[in-house]
Structure formats: structure tokens, C-alpha cells
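Summary for the steering committee. The consortium agreed at its last meeting that each partner would contribute one worked example illustrating the joint modelling workflow. Our contribution is presented below. We chose a case with several input lines so that the handling of multiple components could be demonstrated. No manual editing was applied between input and output; the record is shown as generated.
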Amino acid sequence: MSSSVPEIHDPLTVRDLVVRFGSTPVLNGLSLNAAANRITAVLGPNGAGKTTLIRSCTGLVSPASGSISLLGSAPGSPHATARVGMMPQSTGAWSGIRPGELLVYLASLYAHPQPVPALMSRLGITSYRDTPYRRLSGGQQQAVNLAGALVGRPELVFLDEPTAGLDPHARRSTWELLGELRDAGVTVVLTTHAMDEAEALADRIFIVDRGRVTVTGTVAELTGHGQSLEDVFLANTHAAVGS
Ligand SMILES: Nc1ncnc2c1ncn2[C@@H]1O[C@H](COP(=O)(O)OP(=O)(O)OP(=O)(O)O)[C@@H](O)[C@H]1O
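What follows is the complete predicted structure of the assembly.
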């Protein structure tokens, strides 16, 4: 298993990140990097700190210490905000808005957004573009969340469990889309609990446990000793507290 050697030009570099909520450290010296035009998958048990990592990278959480470089800038800076997309796990705040309106609004925040009709068509949103967000199915909400992350043509996009709860058709369609994004030069950082998804998509995997990276490598490197990726996951993580 290789250690990941960060390149100075990596779109994402996280070093020794510490995040505390109250006195409890949730990220505890976490370091990782995401290479350009690649899909990087972050795996870890429930509560390991994956969402907190993404929220830190997108300026929504303030770390106690450590550093994050996004395309050479700090999280939340105008340079980073204009070039980075994020698909959160859930977006309760959007409850009454209609997908079409939401995406047109989000597009207006960017200098060179994707055409909203084409994006809605690609993600299968067109037929429910006028349905209030709260009335959409979980999978439909996921599609809208993904569209929101992509509408600004990000160079780097964070996707927090992008296929959670999707049926197999929608999941495969999302995989295809993520492959197209990579081929188009987008750097993708995603979290997932699905080992087959990480195997199918990830150019590099980071396994996170209790707020730090315990192992990293390509799928081939991690599974090179005849272990499945799930075996490697189980060997390098603890069960979530309470499970
Ligand atoms: N705003 C917050 N205030 C207090 N504790 C928080 C906050 N956000 C997250 N936590 C705690 O931080 C820990 C890590 O949460 P996080 O959501 O980052 O985990 P995760 O790896 O994304 O988990 P999952 O796989 O279940 O989504 C959890 O114990 C969670 O309760």
C-alpha cells in the first residue's frame, strides 16, 4: 500500500487537520490530497468525520488547526468558491423551492454556468422541475443536489454520498456522469459506504477512521494481497460508537 505523496499542484491538499466540536476532536490530524482530473474516494465508518472534512473544505466548518488548499486558495475565498462545487448529504433548507427555480438561481451566481435545461435533462430532472423540493423522492432530491453542485462548472467538486438511496439505474447513471466529469478534467472527491462504488470509480482511496487517514492507495494497491476492499476497510477501521 503506497503512501500518497502530495503534488504541489494537487487541486486539494489537506494537512494535519484538526476539527473540534466542543472539546471532542472529530478530525484528529487528517491529511489527504486529491489529484487533478481524478476521482478520489473517502471511505470510513459512520461518524468517522467524512462530512466534517467536506464541510471544512467548503468553508462551512472552521478547523482548530491544520491547513486546506483548494486550487491554491483557502476554503471560502472568492477564488475557491467560484471554482468548487459541493453536493451535501441533505439540504433541508431548500424545502419549498422548485428545482428549475433553484438551479436558475444557483446558475446566476457563477460567471460561466452550465445551461440549466441541458443539465436538468442530463440528470432526469426536467419532468419534476416544477415540483417543490420537499415533495420529491429521495432519489430525485439527490439528482437536484448533484445538479446544484455541477451547475457552476466546478474544477473541483465534493460529493457527499452521491448515490446513497439511489436505485441501480440511477446509481449507474450517476457513475457514468462522474466518469464523464473526470474525462472532462474535473477533480472529484466523493464519500461512499459502497465498496463496489469505490472500486468502480476511485483512482485513489483514503480510508478514514476516528478523524484520521489510516490507509490510502489505489484499489489495486489496497487489494493486492488477495483481500477484498471490504476486508481492507474492516481491518483499518473501528465499528462506529454505539453500533
Ligand atoms: N455541528 C456539529 N456539532 C457537534 N458534533 C458534530 C457536528 N457535526 C458533526 N458532529 C459529530 O462529528 C462526528 C463526525 O460526523 P460526520 O458527519 O463528519 O461523520 P461521517 O463520517 O460523515 O459519518 P456518516 O458516514 O454517518 O455520514 C460525529 O460524531 C458527529 O456527531
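The chain has a mean pLDDT of 93. Residues 55 and 132 are 26 Å apart (CA to CA).
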